[in-house]
Amino acid sequence: MGGRMQARRGELIDVLSFPGFVVERDGVLTYRQDDGGCELTVIAAGQRHTGIGTALINALRAAVEGRIWLITTNDNLDAIRFYQRRGFRLRRVHPGAVDVARRLKPEIPDIGHYGIPMRDEVELELEPAD
């Protein structure tokens, strides 16, 4: 999950302060809505490859209207793969945004998953179903 306090797009947010869904003790998803759609702020499943994450995304899709978007980091290849397989598309890359986020949350590591330097935020988006 990356911790309760997360830095993204130059803002430090408490991801557990937003509405969300819980799958018993196995998963949680929180989100916040604005005029531009719905930001998925955190998703965490107790066990991977069990369908919990997909169920949480489907619950969010049923609960909100408009586009759903999220931010992850350039090193989080597993998350990027997960979201793309569920219909999300790469929307933007924010070069150097993680360096800015470290000013708000210094404990963000320099090196992330798979030994990849963590530098950029990647924005993914799911357009509403027709």
Please sum up the structure shown.
22% of the residues lie in helices and 36% in strands. It has three helices and eight strands.
Structure description:
Helix content is 22%, strand content 36%. By secondary structure, it is of the alpha+beta class. It has one domain: 3-Layer(aba) Sandwich (Aminopeptidase), CATH 3.40.630.30. The chain has a 6-stranded mixed beta sheet, covered by helices on one side. A two-stranded antiparallel ribbon has the order 1-2. Strand 1 and strand 2 form a beta hairpin. The longest helix has 12 residues. It is globular, with a radius of gyration of 14 Å. The termini are far apart.
Main beta-sheet strand count, sense and barrel state: 6 strands, mixed
The gyration radius over C-alpha positions equals: 14 Å
CATH class equals Alpha Beta
Task: State the CATH architecture.
Answer: 3-Layer(aba) Sandwich
* Total domains: 1
User: How many helical stretches?
Assistant: 3
* Helical/strand content category: alpha+beta
Side-by-side strand order of the widest sheet: 3-4-5-6-8-7
User: What is the CATH topology classification name?
Assistant: Aminopeptidase
Percentage of residues in strands: 35-45%
Secondary structure: number of strands: 8
The CATH superfamily title: Gcn5-related N-acetyltransferase (GNAT)
Cα distance spanning the termini:
31 Å
Shape: globular
Helix content class: 10-25%
**On the 0-100 scale, what is the average pLDDT?**
89
**SSE ordering:** EEEEEHEHEHE
Low-pLDDT stretches are none
